[in-house]
Amino acid sequence: MRRMPPEERRHELVAAAIRVIARQGVAAATTRAITAEAGMPLGAFTYIFGTQDELMTAVIDTVIEQERFAAESRAIDPTSLASAIRSGLEGYIDLLERDPADEIALLELALVARRRDPQGQMRAQWETYYTAAEQVLTYAAEITGNRWTQPVADLARHLVVVVDGITTTWLADGDSDAARRTASFAAAAFAAASAPLGAPTEGSPRADGDR
């Protein structure tokens, strides 16, 4: 086996875990199966990850970061907030089409977490999603010169629900055109909860007509 730095080895093990989970489920993702998938000796796992839970956390963090990066780095259209949100969602759909195994692995991990600890691990996984969604919404508002008129935390939850729906429905029917139509519909709904920077807020003198 060729020598590789620890960070590269970590990346390979995470990628191998995603493939095993997506193909066979979480129960099959033993350290032996993952290292075999990665083409590494069994000892490589304990050298990089102390426990199986640490690896599963790394899988979740890696996939979420890829999703956020896809949403932010695709050719984001800054002409309007609706366009920015739509293009960000389309970036996510591109990622989903390219490698659905990532999302299958996340769903597998979430369901196992829900069975093991109904009020703990799955909730923590979704809290990570909410944080990533807030970052995307904040970025979209910044690059389009807008502000949100509703709490960003509430909007982030809505965005996670939209992405979850797009994901599971696409995994069921593979209809990318329909997924993009959903993205466009959702983007318009999010844009309705925004206003240009500098626009008067509700209840301000200008908003009430007091000049």
Structure explained in plain terms:
The chain has a two-stranded antiparallel ribbon with strand order 1-2. By secondary structure, the protein is mostly helical. It folds into two domains: 1-50, Orthogonal Bundle (Arc Repressor Mutant, subunit A); 60-196, Tetracycline Repressor, domain 2. The chain has helices at 6-24, 31-38, 43-48, 52-73, 81-98, 100-116, 121-144, 152-173, 176-191, and strands at residues 146-148, 194-196.
Assembly state (oligomeric): single chain
Helix content: over 70%
Reported CATH architecture of the largest domain: Orthogonal Bundle
Largest sheet: 2 strands, antiparallel
The top level CATH class name of the largest domain: Mainly Alpha
Averaged pLDDT, please? 84
Q: Tell how many strands the DSSP assignment holds.
A: 2
| Low-confidence segments | 207-211
Number of domains: 2
Beta percentage is: under 5%
Distance between the termini: 75 Å
Strand order of the largest sheet: 1-2
Q: Structural class, judged by helices and strands? A: mainly alpha
> Count of helices?
9
